[in-house]
Amino acid sequence: MSLNGDINYNYFSRKGTYELTSFDFNADRWSAKMTTKFNLPANFA
Question: Which of 11, 34, 38, 40 gives a 20 to 30 Å CA spacing to 19?
Answer without folding.
Answer: 11
